[in-house]
Structures are given as structure tokens and as C-alpha cells.
């Protein structure tokens, strides 16, 4: 397949683009600078200089692709507007195409909100955290576009870790400063997943899933944050040196992200396993925290 990936130089998107290339597909990656374009070329990915804010910069290339993979995400006042524009661009490209196309849209498990310790799956109601409240409408927009000409899927990764760090960066960064900071008392659970397992799920979704549904991409371990943070402290050589941030301090430090860092979630992955034949390959974050901390440090240069 010819695959067009947004966010191809970002944390999740770069792993996804690389996974499609390893699977033998020709991958086109959107890049906003010549430096990022060069990085894509080194990874055997065809760089497309452009910007989500300017669909005309990439639509011509997208029209020639069989699959659109939307992984781009940014934190700005234009986030919602740009995400919607990207979706609309891919829908336009699919209507102009001479053959059926497919669209994979990246959402996340935070659309379930704080589940209070209950395990949720794709049939559970969506009560999203404020930070991602807008994603529910965009998920619906994508799924409603499913037709004989366009196969659509919404993928909901859990709290992603591995490589440069993902959502675990605040723990690693504070560990390097001498004390691991966590939001809350650590009794809450996260729905975790390694970034490379996420990438593999995307490839399988493109190759196998029938479309028209949302799938949770998590490893099913749902560890307690306190256990994860303790593992980070041990890996950093500062066992037990953990600071609990009060809600107001967490908001001051992390802004809207604080709600997600303190959320209590357990998310099931049975549907993705059955639909895709997907099985996470990585051991739990807790059991290999030393590897992930070392990887984070190496990425810091």
C-alpha cells in the first residue's frame, strides 16, 4: 500500500510510520521543516513538506495513497480546528479517489474519562476528560464517513510509554532532578501500552480490520501509578524518593494534562486482540522500568 501518515515525526506517528515501512509499505510522512523531512528520508519514508493548517500542501500526495493515518496532535489554541480540517481533507481525498481508501484516526482512552476503577471496553459510554472532550465528536465524524468507498477505524491508544518516554516523561524528568513527582496518591491505575505495540496494532488494523468501529489499544495490565512511580525511582537509583503533587500544584505544573495524569482507568483490550490478532509483545512498564528510564536518558543526549 501507499500510506500517508500525519505526525510522522512525532512520538506515536514516527513509530507508526516506521512500522508500516517495516511491513513493506511505501510510506509518505508529513513534515513541517526541511530538517524533519531529512529525518524521514533517513528512515526510508517519503517526506511531504506541508502543514495540517494548509491542506493544499499535502492533498495531492494524499489522493494517491491507499491509506490515511492521522497521528498528528498538538497542544495549541488551534488543536481542534486543525484536527477537524485534517479529517475533512482525508474525506475529500477519498471522494476524489478512483479506488476505495481507508482512514485510521488516532484518539485515546481518555475519552472514557475517569472510570473509577471499573474496567471499560468499546461498548462503555464515553465521558471524556475535559482535555479531550472534543475528540468524541471527531471520532463520530470519522466513523460516520464509513462507506463502500472509505473504510474508517478509530484507534484509542492507552498511556503510551517507551523510547523517548511518552506520557512517562514527567516521572523520568523529575527523577533526574532527584525526586519522582506523581499526581495524586498513586492508587489510581493507568491503561498502559508500549509505543512499538501501538505501531504494530496500526499496521494490523490497516491490513485486517473491517472498519466502522473503535478499538482500544492497551496492554491490559492496568498498573497502579504508585507501582510505576516506585519502579522509576528504583531505576533512577533514588528508591522511595517520591513526591505527591496536590491537585492545585499539579495543574500549575502540567496545566490541563494534570487531569489525565491523575485519572483512574482500567481499559480492556479483548476486542482489538480478536479483531486484529494483535498481542502486545512488551512486558509491563513496571517490570522493565530500568530499560525505559535508560532509553529516556539516552534520548536526552
Compile the SSE list and pairings.
Layout: E1 2-6, H1 11-22, E2 26-31, H2 34-42, E3 46-49, H3 59-63, E4 67-70, H4 79-96, E5 101-106, E6 119-120, H5 133-144, E7 150-157, E8 159-161, H6 169-176, E9 180-183, E10 192-194, H7 195-208, E11 213-217, H8 225-235, E12 242-245, H9 247-254, H10 257-261, E13 266-267, H11 270-276, H12 289-299
Parallel strand pairs: 1-2, 1-4, 2-3, 4-5, 5-7, 6-13, 7-11, 8-10, 9-12
Helix pairs in contact: 1-7, 4-5, 8-12
Q: Could you please describe the fold and organization of this structure?
A:
There is one protein chain. This protein has 301 residues and is an alpha/beta fold. It has a domain at 2-158 and 193-218 and 268-281: NAD(P)-binding Rossmann-like Domain (Rossmann fold). It is built from 12 helices and 13 strands. The strands form 4 sheets. It has a 7-stranded parallel sheet, with helices on both faces. A two-stranded parallel sheet has the order 6-13. A two-stranded parallel ribbon has the order 8-10. The chain starts with a strand and ends with a helix.
Amino acid at each position: 500500500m501507499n500510506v500517508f501518515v500525519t505526525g510522522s515525526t512525532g512520538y506515536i506517528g514516527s513509530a507508526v510510520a516506521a512500522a508500516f515501512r517495516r511491513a513493506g509499505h511505501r510510506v509518505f510522512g508529513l513534515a513541517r521543516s526541511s530538517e524533519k523531512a531529512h529525518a524521514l528520508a533517513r528512515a526510508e519514508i517519503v517526506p511531504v513538506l506541508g502543514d495540517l493548517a494548509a491542506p493544499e500542501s499535502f492533498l495531492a500526495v494524499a489522493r494517491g495513497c491507499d491509506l490515511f493515518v492521522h497521528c498528528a496532535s498538538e497542544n495549541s489554541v488551534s488543536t481542534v480546528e486543525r484536527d477537524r480540517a485534517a479529517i475533512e481533507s482525508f474525506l475529500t481525498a477519498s471522494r476524489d479517489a478512483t479506488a476505495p481508501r481507508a482512514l485510521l484516526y488516532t484518539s485515546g482512552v481518555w475519552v472514557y474519562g475517569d472510570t473509577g476503577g471499573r474496567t471499560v471496553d468499546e461498548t462503555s459510554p464515553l465521558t471524556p476528560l475535559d482535555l479531550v472532550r472534543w475528540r468524541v465528536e471527531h471520532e463520530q465524524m470519522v466513523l460516520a464517513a464509513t462507506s463502500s468507498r472509505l473504510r474508517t477505524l478509530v484507534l484509542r491508544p492507552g498511556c503510551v510509554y517507551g523510547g523517548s518516554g511518552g506520557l512517562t516523561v514527567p516521572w523520568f524528568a523529575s527523577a533526574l532532578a532527584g525526586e519522582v513527582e506523581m499526581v495524586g496518591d498513586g492508587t489510581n491505575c493507568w491503561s498502559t501500552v508500549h509505543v512499538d505495540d501501538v505501531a504494530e496494532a496500526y499496521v494490523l488494523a490497516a491490513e485486517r480490520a473491517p472498519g466502522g468501529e473503535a478499538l482500544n489499544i492497551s496492554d491490559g495490565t492496568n498498573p497502579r501509578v504508585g507501582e510505576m512511580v516506585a519502579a522509576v525511582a528504583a531505576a533512577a537509583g533514588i528508591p522511595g524518593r517520591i513526591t505527591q503533587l496536590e491537585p492545585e500544584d499539579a495543574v500549575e505544573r502540567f496545566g490541563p494534562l494534570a487531569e489525565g495524569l491523575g485519572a483512574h482507568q482500567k481499559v480492556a483490550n479483548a476486542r482489538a486482540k480478536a479483531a486484529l490478532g494483535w498481542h502486545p509483545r512488551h512486558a509491563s512498564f513496571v517490570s522493565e522500568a530500568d530499560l525505559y528510564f535508560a532509553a529516556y536518558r539516552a534520548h536526552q543526549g
